[in-house]
Design brief:
Blueprint lengths: L6 H6 L16 H34 L9 H10 L1 H12 L8 H30 L3 H26 L13 H23 L8 H37 L5 H23 L2 H8 L5 H33 L11 H4 L4
Helix pairs in contact: 2-5, 3-7, 3-8, 4-7, 4-8, 5-6, 5-7, 6-7, 6-8, 6-9, 7-8, 8-9, 8-11, 10-11
Length: 337
């Protein structure tokens, strides 16, 4: 879909050649060289970002942050910790009324999110010190809303934007939610792995290792679904931006604002609400209070995402498009490079 046309092109109605006047296409050798340089530059920039993220991830292993994954039991616990998050991502994929998204794109998006999580870890670590000087009742919420939420949701969305977004198989708005969910799953996986393995290499015995990692895995299993939900919301708006290129920037920002708000609010309330519940009703144990809060909060966010997806599904069906039919037409998939 093209943007606004120059007045000369619009009024000439194709009656004359306006190449290099008000229109452009690749014709000359210089055009070809310019096109090649641009594409090479974009590809190099993407490759640099991926390599840099991979270096950060390898540094985590080298510095011991993920070394405990060598323990088979810990690896199993990491896998178990993402089961709830995987279930939500699978559901988002299942309710996509358009053609099913290819596994290859989902895997690449998942992998990129694993890599890019390192960027968020670095930024969060650097920024946390600045907010640490403030009273915790003020500093921590500000840190969650201004740093953690925006940074983590941005890097997850980057995992979608860098590869799947430009693929022609990303052919509908709702596809953004599917790839966003895959990015959230990848982010949750590496984050859970870091939390589970952190501090478990300091001379722990096997049984101590299993006990410590198992407890953390249970907590992370409750926290992981949020990552999928938040990034699926941001991904939905990225898909909306792809097919509304004239307003793409504000649409992407809107999706990030919503996702970052939900993320920051979760981080803030998770440290407050369970304690208030146990204080108000002493018969409620801390684990039950935490589980209850997470279920209610994630349920509310899931309902928000469900409303977005349901609205798209209704519009899709009202348009008379057969579910699971042919590939989207060129009219649905065409977009500016």
């Amino acid at each position: 879909m093209r943007g606004k046309r120059d007045p000369v092109e619009r009024e000439s109605r194709g009656s004359r050649d306006l190449y290099d006047i008000s229109t452009w296409e690749k014709r000359s050798t210089v055009d070809a060289i310019s096109t090649w340089i641009y594409r090479f530059g974009v590809a190099s920039a993407k490759a640099f970002v991926i390599v840099l993220a991979a270096v950060f991830l390898l540094a985590q292993f080298a510095l011991g942050g993920l070394g405990a994954l060598a323990e088979p039991v810990v690896g199993v616990l990491v896998v178990l910790s993402i089961v709830p998050a995987f279930a939500i991502a699978a559901y988002v994929w299942y309710v996509d009324v358009t053609t099913g998204e290819p596994l290859s794109l989902l895997v690449v998006t998942f992998t990129l999110a694993v890599l890019f999580a390192m960027f968020a870890a670095v930024v969060n670590s650097i920024a946390q010190g600045a907010f640490g000087a403030l009273p915790s009742v003020i500093g921590m919420p500000l840190f969650f809303f201004l740093v953690v939420g925006p940074v983590e949701e941005t890097v997850k969305l980057l995992a979608v934007r860098l590869y799947a977004y430009d693929d022609v198989r990303f052919g509908a708005v709702i596809d953004g939610a599917v790839y966003g969910a895959a990015a959230g799953l990848g982010f949750a996986t590496i984050e859970n792995a870091i939390y589970i393995t952190r501090g478990l290499e300091a001379g722990l015995g096997t049984f101590e290792l299993i006990g410590a990692a198992g407890g953390t895995a249970a907590i992370r299993a409750l926290a992981g679904p949020g990552h999928v939900l938040y990034s699926a919301i941001a991904g939905f708006y990225l898909g909306l931006a792809k097919f509304n290129r004239e307003n793409a920037g504000p649409i992407v920002v809107k999706g990030l604002l919503i996702a970052a708000f939900f993320h920051g609010l979760y981080n803030t309330l998770a440290g407050i609400v369970p304690g208030l519940l146990t204080a108000a009703a002493t018969w409620i144990s801390p684990p039950i209070a935490l589980i209850g809060f997470l279920v209610l909060y994630d349920g509310a966010v899931a309902y928000f995402l469900y409303r977005r997806i349901s609205s798209y599904r209704r519009a899709y069906e009202d348009a008379g498009i057969i579910h699971g039919g042919d590939e989207p037409t060129a009219e649905l998939t065409e977009f500016d490079p």
